[in-house]
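Intended use. Records like the one below are meant for learning the mapping from a protein sequence to its folded structure. Do not use them to infer anything beyond what is encoded.
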Amino acid sequence: MIDNPRSPRVRAVAKLSKRDARLETGLFLLEGPQAVIEALNFRPELIVELYATPFALDRYSDIGVAAEEAGIEVEFVTEQVLTSMADTVTPQGIIAVCRQFPTSLKDILSDEPKLIAILEEVRDPGNAGTIIRAADAAGADAVILTGRSVDLYNPKVVRSTTGSLFHLPVAVGIDLEAVIERVKEAGLQILAADIKGEDLLEARRGGVLAGPTAWLFGNEARGLSDEHYALADKAVTVPIYGNAESMNLATAASVCLYESAFSQRD
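Structure written out for the chain above:
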């Protein structure tokens, strides 16, 4: 059992909460039983190290079973060591170190996608992770984070996906103009989610949402720049019927993705 929270190995894991360490190593931190079991079930080859307290592994016995089936050794650590490794204040006793695995835009488009989410300058980790989770739930084919968006492997992004990160392709670090050009060439329309756009329900009634679509979501505070707004084929807005001043980006994105999913399945 690892019991020294100051050991080089523990410090190396803890450093993965920082972007520089992730860039240098090509690794990222995966916390919590739900995220870890998704990695074990869908992408076990990505797991480099797996740590757990004895109590946590006893509580989440399915993780031990899945790890054994995947040929991955679970290393026991003390509560103090696990707390030192974790990015969260109150970790749940399970941590994995994984290899980063972004998908290329070429591979995404070669599979003839029908529904994609593009994130341009989305900076909040919780929003980015929740949109990936919503895209997964809505049956989207991929998510693309441009180079101006938050790091996909930020621990808060990873946690917010609740394991969906391992379910669908995600491309990162691409210039938006290049993304738009190649997505259009692949036969998808670009719909910008913007308050200046057409009412979402009107767009659905008009058949706008039924075709292959890439939704473009901009910055939480500023939305899309005029230059990037002009790249879209059409703009659509989620109507607000109550007295709310605005809608959270991740919530609006979830609605847009599901409306497309509904329309494409009608």
